[in-house]
């Protein structure tokens, strides 16, 4: 065993002489991830900074990108939790209170780390593929040491999911009582899937049962841990599905608010 390995702190990454030992098109996966995440981030940046078409009057549809909308700049109907902040200057997202925590939750997510490490940093680009980085410090230095905040971002994500749930529920009740349209179903479906993604988090699984030495002594927590473990097995799929549902929900509300399309109504 070399001195470096004996110390347990390898100074360089494992290297191979060949550029790759793969014979398949290994580059397709990181390329697709790179393009998908880049396009989604660009869409989110444009939408959150536009301060337009975020709420549908009459139906109470509020996009998750602008929730909670507590600025004086928000239209009165979108202020489900009151007015805490003054008017925002141009380009400042109305949902700024939540967006930072949600971005932190996604960025520090175990699956997303793997995805963008490979797709953006080529660290590593794929198994059995030579990478351009010579040194390896892991997540022990800034900024990657911030990945250890994931469990705290999880708590914030739970609170924000409750806020999104309230937004979805309150939209079912208008001036004329109970109402339902396609937008309500989209909002509700998005919230359900967001809960599934949030609860499937590895930190949530650890919180519910990770420290138990005997499941038989904690039957309720064992059942919860079992349920979370089933969701956890789908964490990667839910990570991508919820990006899709967030985009669809926001786009649908934007098109309704801009008058491009009409909502399909079922009740009122």
From TrEMBL:
Where are its TM segments located? 26-46, 91-112, 152-174, 180-199, 238-261
Question: Which UniProt keywords are present, listed alphabetically?
Answer: Membrane, Transmembrane, Transmembrane helix
Question: Superkingdom of this entry's organism?
Answer: Bacteria
Protein name in UniProt: Uncharacterized protein
Q: Which species expresses this protein natively?
A: Thermopolyspora flexuosa
> Keyword Transmembrane on this protein?
yes
């Amino acid at each position: 065993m070399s001195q470096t390995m004996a110390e347990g702190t390898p100074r360089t990454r494992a290297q191979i002489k060949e550029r790759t030992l793969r014979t398949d098109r290994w580059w397709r996966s990181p390329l697709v991830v790179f393009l998908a995440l880049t396009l989604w981030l660009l869409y989110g940046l444009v939408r959150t900074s536009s301060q337009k078409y975020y709420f549908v009057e009459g139906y109470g549809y509020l996009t998750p990108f602008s929730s909670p909308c507590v600025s004086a700049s928000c239209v009165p109907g979108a202020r489900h939790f009151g007015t805490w902040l003054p008017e925002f200057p141009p380009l400042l997202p109305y949902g700024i209170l939540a967006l930072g925590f949600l971005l932190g939750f996604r960025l520090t997510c175990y699956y997303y780390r793997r995805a963008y490490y490979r797709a953006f940093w080529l660290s590593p680009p794929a198994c059995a593929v030579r990478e351009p980085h010579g040194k390896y410090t892991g997540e022990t230095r800034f900024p990657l040491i911030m990945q250890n905040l994931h469990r705290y971002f999880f708590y914030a994500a739970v609170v924000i999911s409750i806020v999104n749930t309230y937004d979805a529920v309150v939209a079912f009740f208008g001036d004329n009582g109970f109402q339902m349209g396609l937008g309500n179903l989209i909002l509700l479906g998005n919230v359900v899937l967001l809960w599934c993604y949030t609860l499937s988090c590895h930190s949530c699984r650890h919180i519910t049962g990770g420290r138990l030495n005997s499941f038989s002594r904690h039957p309720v927590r064992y059942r919860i841990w079992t349920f979370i473990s089933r969701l956890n097995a789908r964490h990667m799929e839910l990570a991508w599905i919820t990006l899709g549902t967030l985009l669809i929900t926001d786009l649908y509300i934007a098109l309704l608010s801009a008058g491009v399309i009409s909502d399909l109504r079922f009740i009122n």
